[in-house]
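Bumping my old thread because nobody answered last time. Still need a sequence for this structure:
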């Protein structure tokens, strides 16, 4: 693993630990993190077509792999779709790939991007930070894992609202402090 790849994975793990787990933005993330069931992959793709190839490869790895070893994958793609609107357009392609018949409706994709913006929000609204990651990435999930997690968390539909309230309370200054803090 080259130093750039190692740094990107480390940055992503720091973000996961500080923001996603630390702020409890995803109550399901801690268990797979602690069990080391998250696969981190950095794509060297520089075109959407190259990223699609890497995505399909990783969908196969996740689909065919042992869930006890790999429960979820973070496909980090720092060299392509750096513009959020381009990334957002690509999500339809990514979702179509995950829906291919060979995956038997067993996989889904969640989206994270440094410029992530929900519809009907301003670019700088703090709520967008729930899905802002250090690099553009696609989060590949097993449908079974999602269903188990939702069953274990009866108010799963409230996660979104809780996350918005958490970030509003934290504010931009708090986010900046959190992300710049050392371990």
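Sorry it took so long. Here it is:
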């Amino acid at each position: 693993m080259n130093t750039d790849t190692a740094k990107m994975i480390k940055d992503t793990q720091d973000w996961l630990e500080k923001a996603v787990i630390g702020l409890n933005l995803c109550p399901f993330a801690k268990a797979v993190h602690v069990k080391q069931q998250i696969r981190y992959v950095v794509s060297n793709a520089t075109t959407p077509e190259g990223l699609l190839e890497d995505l399909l490869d990783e969908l196969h790895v996740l689909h065919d792999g042992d869930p006890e070893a790999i429960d979820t994958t973070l496909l980090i793609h720092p060299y392509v779709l750096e513009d959020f609107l381009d990334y957002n357009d690509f999500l339809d392609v990514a979702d179509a790939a995950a829906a291919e018949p060979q995956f038997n409706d067993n996989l889904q994709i969640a989206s994270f991007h440094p410029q992530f913006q929900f519809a009907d929000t301003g670019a700088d609204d703090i709520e967008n930070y729930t899905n802002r990651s250090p690099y553009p990435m696609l989060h590949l999930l097993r449908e079974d894992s999602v269903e188990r997690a939702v069953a274990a968390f009866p108010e799963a539909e409230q996660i979104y609202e809780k996350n918005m309230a958490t970030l509003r309370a934290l504010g931009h200054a708090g986010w900046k402090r959190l992300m710049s803090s050392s371990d």
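The first helix runs from residue 3 to 21. Let me know if any region looks off to you.
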